[in-house]
Specification:
By secondary structure, this protein is of the alpha/beta class. It is 37% helix and 21% strand. The protein has eight helices and ten strands. A six-stranded mixed sheet has the order 6-7-8-3-9-10, sandwiched between helices. A hairpin with a 5-residue loop joins strand 1 and strand 2. Helix 7 packs across helix 8. The longest helix is centred in the C-terminal third of the chain and has 25 residues. It is globular and about 55 Å long. The termini are far apart. The structure holds adenosine-5'-triphosphate and magnesium ion. The site of magnesium ion has 5 residues, from helix 1.
Length: 304
């Protein structure tokens, strides 16, 4: 279970006149996501969706509030500079680096993240890309628990074939189509067998047909994990209302930013497999379009 409690994020900036300025990217977002759920985050550009997702992943620290996964706190990466260390000390209220258990019991969470522009390494083949993340994951383990190179390659091959990339193991990303690259990013995320997959507009760069196929593949793989008694939580940022409704158990709508906060939570209680044209699905889409349209109209009233 993911629990986000009163998450806010402020950025301090220096404007063109050299004056300090604050920007609220996320304001007081609380969200609980039970295991095995698919949740989409929807909202206008700049409302803080990516920021919130990165906070969930522990890639950014919230200014306020906390994230817990299965009850354990999510902490941002360890500080690497003196300035970051001072900030870290203030945040966790300690004096010595070993105090408060912040360094000693840093929990490890099983999270995989797929970024807004797919992050695969262009200089590695498809297989090498997957082996790379498997190697990263095994780095923290005891030597005797680490898988061998052959085992990692076998696993990488297995997940590549799961996403329909069997035969493309030795191709470089540049030799793959946009949809195939997106599949590669998915194979990398799945290969570490995560409990949580966070996706930032994963299908934005592919054409409509590919997109529908990828959505169905994702649902298939998610259902399969459910059968293995290790249900995966998927949290996905999307700009596409039909996609969000078709895939999700719940659609969370953010208010227009800056200072995005949760505006509505729309449950999608339609059993799977779903038809994209199911009247219930279409009705929920229309309700969401109406909310988004309302926000756009409100905004233009202010700006006129
Ligand atoms: N590192 C940063 N420093 C300063 N401001 C930032 C930083 N990252 C994001 N912001 C600001 O925070 C707000 C939210 O950004 P974010 O990327 O989370 O939006 P988003 O909802 O993902 O938008 P989009 O749909 O366009 O991807 C924006 O106003 C953005 O300019
Ligand atoms: Mg974004």
């Amino acid at each position: 279970m993911i629990e986000a409690r009163s998450i806010s994020k402020f950025f301090s900036l220096v404007n063109e006149k050299g004056l300090a300025e604050g920007l609220t990217a996320v304001l007081n977002v609380s969200l609980t996501i039970p295991d095995g759920r698919i949740v989409s985050l929807l909202g206008p550009s700049g409302c803080g969706k990516s920021t919130f997702l990165e906070i969930l992943a522990g890639l950014q620290a919230p200014t306020d509030g906390e994230i817990r996964i299965d009850g354990r706190l999510v902490l941002e990466p360890l500080p690497s500079t003196r300035k970051e260390m001072e900030e870290y000390k203030r945040r966790y209220r300690f004096i010595s680096p070993l105090a408060n258990g912040v360094f000693t019991d840093r929990p490890k969470h099983d999270i995989a993240m797929i970024f807004q522009d797919y992050a695969v390494f262009p200089w590695m083949t498809a297989l090498q890309n997957v082996v790379f993340v498997l190697r990263l994951r095994s780095a923290g383990k005891r030597r005797s628990d680490r898988p061998s190179r052959a085992e990692m390659e076998e696993k990488a091959g297995f997940y590549l074939s799961k996403v329909g990339l069997a035969g493309a193991e030795n191709k470089y990303p540049a030799q793959l189509s946009g949809g195939m690259r997106q599949r590669l990013a998915l194979a990398r995320a799945l290969s570490v067998e995560p409990k949580i997959i966070l996706m930032d507009e994963p299908f934005a760069a592919v054409d409509a047909l590919q997109r529908e196929r990828l959505q169905d593949d994702l649902l298939y793989l998610w259902e399969e994990a459910k059968g293995n008694a290790s249900p995966i939580i998927i949290v996905m940022v999307s700009h596409d209302v039909p996609e969000a409704v078709y895939l999700s158990d719940e659609v969370v709508i953010f208010s227009p930013g800056p200072g995005g906060t949760v505006r509505n939570r729309i449950p999608v209680d339609v059993p799977r497999p779903r038809a994209r044209t199911d009247p219930e699905i279409v009705a929920i889409q229309e309700r969401i379009f109406a909310i988004l349209q309302y926000d756009i109209n409100q905004e233009s009233m202010y700006t006129i």
